[in-house]
Amino acid sequence: MTDREILTTADTAKLLGVSVRTAQLLIEGGSVPSWKTPGGHRRVYRSDIEALIEGRSSGGASPSATVVIVAPPDRGALYRRLFEGTAECAAEIHEDPHTALFAIASIRPHAVLVDLADGNIERLTLLRSLDRNPALGHSRILAVGSPAPFADGTGRVIYLDTPDYALESVRRSLAEAAPVASPATGLPFPIALNEGQRLVAMERLGLLDTAPEEAFDRLTWLAARTLEAPISLITLLTPTRQWFKSRFGLELQETPRSWAFCNYSILQKGVFSVEDLACDPRFADNPAVAGDPSFRFYAGAPILDNEGHAVGSLCVIDFERRTLGAQQAEALRALAAMASTEVRLRATERQLRDSLRRTERQQAPSRT
To answer: Taking every annotated instance into account, which residue ranges of this chain make up the domain GAF (predicted)?
Structure first.
């Protein structure tokens, strides 16, 4: 074994294209096998890092926080309400089993939930096919309202009585599947059960501390104009910082994370708004509310990456107390979806660059 085959934490971070802190989270959380030297320093084999980059590790691709739900229209509305208030995951809801199959194949979801409360034959057939599909080893398969397990099933399907039980099962499994432990409790703001996983996903985007980009600046400008707000921001939330990828009407580049109203926006999938921050006990003592610049109104919607992690938010802020109208909320949600698309494009571009570098590295010996 040569020294070149053993990596330090800093070497690991450079090879993965993430910060040293993220590399530490990956190593300490067990996503990357490691050992300690007699001096107490973590070391990693290069082959394990290359396997992680190339998707050959036991976890394969980055863990998904998306759930595909197949349900009739009336039950679909119920699932939408339940999952919109859930911090740990994003839900895609389908009525047609055939459409759901395409989504399952392309998303590689954390879980697939099939509602059988009405005894629909097509959904029952879909559940049987999912149960027997070895390519879905990465996904949990849930059945809600099914009277009994299949006599010829593989035992993979988890049977639950109600949508509420299904939601709790998904939340627990996401916390258990997270490759990195969440930060310690006692923080001055709420976090999801899989916050550690969200932090890794956010840093893997490679957007932190990057230069301004016109695509993002257009969105904050449009949000400020559409909602008639003096300030609009696209935020990314790290363990300690709220960093602004784009900002309109504000000179600050970042704030401590403890100041971030967006801590609450990333915990749900709709729009989070506060009419008067000074009258809300969660924010009344916030330095940005109690002192300068004396913010009063906030509204934000989460920005989701390819795997369904809420990496940040698109928000608007005002110095005056105000109410967010239904059309304004829908506009903000649509703009946050556009910001999510831009974030996903950046992630795809980075994956392509990484793939190209791997190809060049593999071909290099043949040219020497």
So the answer is: 211-353
CATH number where 11 lies:
1.10.1660.10
How many alpha carbons lie under 13 Å from residue 78 in its C-beta half-sphere?
Answer: 14
DSSP secondary structure string for all residues of 16-68: HTS-HHHHHHHHHTTSS--EE-TTS-EEEEHHHHHHHHTT-STT-SSPP-EEE
pLDDT given for residue 18 in this prediction: 64
Tokens of 82: 């339940």
State phi, psi for 189 to the nearest 5 degrees.
-145, 155
Query: Which has the closest alpha carbon to 45: 35, 55, 37?
Result: 35
Measure CA 96 to chain center.
26
Question: Could you tell me the residue range of the domain that residue 142 belongs to?
Answer: 66-177
Q: Are residues 33 and 154 located together in one domain of the fold?
A: no
Same domain, 10 and 71: no
Cβ–Cβ under 8 Å, residues 202 and 239: no
Question: What pLDDT is recorded for position 188?
Answer: 86
* Domains in the chain, number: 3
Tokens representing 186? Answer: 């006692």
In a domain, 364, yes or no: no
Token pair belonging to 184 = 């310690």
pTM for the predicted model, two decimal places: 0.77
Q: Is the preceding omega at residue 188 within 30 degrees of 0, hence cis?
A: no
How far apart, in whole angstroms, are the C-alpha atoms of residue 183 and residue 37?
25
Say how far apart CA 17 and CA 210 lie, in whole Å: 14
Rounded distance between C-alpha atoms, residue 89 and residue 67, angstroms? 7
Token pair for 316? 């608007």
Q: Three-class SS of residue 222?
A: helix
Same domain, 347 and 247: yes
- Cα 158 to its chain centre, rounded Å, is 24
Give the number of C-alpha atoms closer than 13 A to the C-alpha of residue 265, restricted to the C-beta side. Answer: 30
Q: Could you tell me if residue 190 is inside a domain? A: no
Question: What are the CB-based long-range contacts (under 8 Å, 24+) for 353-357?
Answer: 354/17, 354/53
Give the closest residue to 117 by CA, choosing from 76, 68, 80: 76
For range 73-81, the mean pLDDT? 94
Residues 165 and 154 sit within 8 Å (Cβ to Cβ): no
In terms of domains, do 228 and 307 share one?
yes
